[in-house]
Design goal:
heterodimer; A: alpha+beta; Cytochrome-c3 Hydrogenase, chain B; three-stranded antiparallel beta sheet; globular; B: alpha/beta; Beta Polymerase, domain 2; five-stranded mixed beta sheet; two-stranded parallel sheet; 3 helices; 19% helix; 29% strand
């Protein structure tokens, strides 16, 4: 390999305030001409000490904070946390609560993927897909707002279920949305997939092979784009994913483009799951049991638990060590984006600087989750 | 399933998470051997290190490695008990993802990792004093006095 003399290397600083770093990531990029030699990601600008905060609060007081770990997919964090406590206390949510949790989580997955889609294309310089994606995202968020009272920080799940029952009006709006969503997905595909600029900027760029993916603990859609079929919903089903018919899309191309295709396909699968949950819920609209009767304020669980969920970005784990008092002893959040950020140096090395944003954007990293 | 591991290495203690995830307590000198054995041995193939985390418990640190085997669809944890002053060997040579994990533990707990490529604070600024996730850490926040001064 050609040895590059030190005076030809230029260090430039990207971020932390930069629109395509999806929050506040800072990257110190060493360049030789326009070629990237090394990237040093610097994180921590959004660190709020969420793991320390848990130790100073009761289980109930910590619940609203949990949504802020990943503000684009709050339901998943809430679920991971509550599922851990439920396991420790041996509480099983009722069937209806499980279905409501599944339908809301899948809707949340679609909003998260749609935001990613818009931002990814924006990173590449195409501004109209952003608005197209937000048209559909806005519809789901409006439904979730009417259901939970909040647009992003839902705080909707509670011990053994959910706080408010889902009513027929909201169910009908969900149905209306998912019937229409296929045309929207088709529109995105027509708009984006054939675009020669998009193809040349994403195909065969940012390759993650299987070994690297496992070595760096990559999970979720990024892993499935590298040809490893790993989805927690299939491998160790939680909630009611056992009863649901859906596919796990896998591609072998390992590049940015396949990560895009995987996410579009995942939205389609989510839509299928939503429709099946709708069909169950519409027949059980009269069921009343949606949460447990145990008083959340006074719980004192004991033991340790690893609670997992397949979040839009990958494997999200909430590890709780409880010591029988009303406050958690230690809570650890294993967040998927934390591991994707590490990979950026491997992926973008030897590419040109403009490719950095297309590679980084395709990983679907979100900073609150990285810094916690 | 873990018979081979128990025969080959000294297991100090065993415990269990809810839902049948086994944890094995081993000596910290063994950690590199145990992890590379678990990763490469065909009867385990723990190819992915989900995360490393630490708990400050009984006046010592417990460093916990959460491993995932895709082939056998199983999980286990390897635990090491160390005193506050002891250092751990870095496992970045076996699992690259451990790089950020170990930096995070160094940052928040103050555990040093030997042979780590770049052991610096990661979440907190370089100028920060103390290690906040230690139980002995006192938060000096004026607002906490409304909480009777307790952390």
């Amino acid at each position: 390999m050609e040895v590059i003399s030190q005076d030809r290397i230029l260090d430039i600083n990207i971020g932390p305030q930069h629109p395509s770093t999806h929050g506040v990531l800072r990257m110190v990029v060493s360049l030789c001409g326009e070629t990237i030699i090394n990237i040093n990601p610097i994180i921590g600008y959004l660190h709020r000490g969420l793991e320390k905060m848990a130790e100073n609060r009761t289980y109930l007081q910590y619940l609203p904070i949990v949504d802020r770990i990943d503000y684009l997919s709050g339901f998943f964090c809430s679920y991971a946390y509550l599922n851990g406590i439920e396991k420790l206390l041996n509480i099983t949510p009722s069937e209806k609560a499980k279905y409501i949790r599944t339908i809301t989580m899948e809707m949340n997955r679609i909003t998260s993927h749609l935001l990613w889609l818009g931002c990814f294309l924006m990173d590449l310089g195409a501004s109209s897909p952003f608005f197209y994606a937000f048209i559909e995202r806005e519809k789901i968020i409006d439904i979730l707002e009417d259901l939970t009272g909040s647009r992003m920080m839902y705080n909707y799940y509670t011990l053994g279920g959910v706080k408010r029952d889902i009513d027929i009006d909201i169910l009908n709006r969900i149905k209306e949305f998912s019937d229409h969503f296929e045309t929207a997905l088709k529109e995105y595909e027509d708009l984006i997939e054939g675009n020669p600029i998009f193809l040349s900027r994403t195909k065969n760029i940012g390759l993650i092979n299987k070994e690297t993916a496992n070595q760096y603990s990559i999970t979720g859609a990024n892993l499935r784009a590298s040809g490893i079929k790993k989805d927690l919903r299939k491998d160790s089903p939680y909630l009611i994913y056992n009863n649901i018919d859906f596919e796990v899309p896998v591609l072998n191309n390992e590049d940015s483009f396949s990560r895009f295709v995987i996410r579009i396909k995942e939205m389609r699968e989510s839509k299928k799951i939503i429709l099946q949950c709708y069909n169950w819920l519409i027949n059980h609209i009269k069921d009343e049991e949606i949460k447990s009767n145990i008083n959340f304020m006074h719980i004192k669980p004991e033991g340790k638990v690893i609670s997992e969920v397949e979040s839009p970005r990958g494997l999200l784990q909430c590890i709780i060590h409880a010591d029988g008092t009303k406050k958690p002893y230690r809570i650890k959040w294993r967040t998927p984006s934390f591991y994707s950020v590490q990979l950026i140096n491997n992926l973008a090395k030897n590419y040109k600087l403009p490719d950095l944003m297309s590679i980084f954007g395709s990983l679907d990293v979100i900073m609150p989750e990285v810094d916690r | 399933m873990f018979e081979n591991l128990k025969n080959k290495f000294e297991i100090l203690r065993e415990s269990e998470y809810q839902q049948d995830i086994h944890s094995f307590y081993i000596k910290k000198e063994d950690i590199l051997n145990v992890l590379s054995y678990l990763k490469n041995s065909p009867s385990y193939l723990f190819e992915r290190l989900d995360c490393i985390y630490t708990v400050d418990i009984n006046n010592s640190f417990e460093v916990i490695y959460v491993l995932q085997s895709d082939k056998y669809n199983t999980k286990c944890t390897i635990n090491c008990n160390i005193s506050y002053e002891e250092e751990m060997p870095s496992v970045t040579s076996i699992y690259s993802s451990a790089n950020f994990d170990e930096r995070e533990i160094f940052d928040l707990f103050g555990v040093k990792f030997n042979n780590h490529p770049n052991l610096k604070r990661i979440l907190l600024p370089e100028s920060f004093e103390g290690h906040p996730l230690r139980k002995s850490y006192k938060m000096q926040d004026e607002r906490l006095r409304w909480n009777n001064g307790s952390n």
